[in-house]
Specification:
Structural class: mainly beta
Largest sheet: 7 strands, antiparallel
Distance between the termini: 43 Å
Radius of gyration: 16 Å
Strand order of the largest sheet: 1-2-13-10-15-8-3
Strand content: 25-35%
CATH superfamily: Alpha-ketoglutarate-dependent dioxygenase AlkB-like
CATH architecture: Sandwich
CATH class: Mainly Beta
Bound molecules: 2-oxoglutaric acid, manganese (II) ion
Shape: globular
CATH topology: Jelly Rolls
Length: 214
Amino acid sequence: MMQADLFADEKRDVELGPGAAILSRFALDAADALIAHIERMSVLSPFRHMETRGGKAMSVAMFNCGAWGWVSDRSGYRYDAIDPVTALPWPDLPTLFLDLANRAADALGFGGFVPDACLVNRYVVGSRLSLHQDRDERDRDAPIVSVSLGLPATFLWGGHKRNDRPARHRLFHGDVVVWGGPSRLVFHGVDELKDADHPSTGAMRYNLTFRKTR
Ligand SMILES: O=C(O)CCC(=O)C(=O)O
Ligand SMILES: [Mn+2]
């Protein structure tokens, strides 16, 4: 098991493009409280492997909190107010989540960001997310705010075309990525998670993506 590379050597923000940046360790102080909320909410709305339109189970397990939740099945991708597993509304967005997302968006100049959806992703060793655009939201003026927790991952930051070769950036525990404005529809993804043991999450990585869907 690899133990090195669990934490960044230094705090260093990275500009990804217009309206897009990695805010190094922006969520570090809140990280353990965020993880406690994730674990509490996953009792109400369990992590599940959704199916793609093609009928394949995704390697990343997910649930949502907030008024709207992203769901995928053989009929496609959409936002739904009801969790199809529990037949209940998704858990409420904790105030801590809302406040963090709002502050991160503000740091990039996107004032007044109030997300109505938060997708919670859980990666285990070998999980990956192939290059995609976040385009199921009706509101494209608001940015996406993404929080990384636990094991580091390699974030793929592409271009406006699927075939644009992506840049690779390590994302560490507490890092926040914001992309909006001219970068809102940039293709992005996550490379296969490598085995290691993180003091806060063990052999897992969590990711929160905050979205304004309407
Ligand atoms: O896990 C990540 O860092 C990115 C997640 C993502 O792109 C998504 O959930 O749409
Ligand atoms: Mn995405």
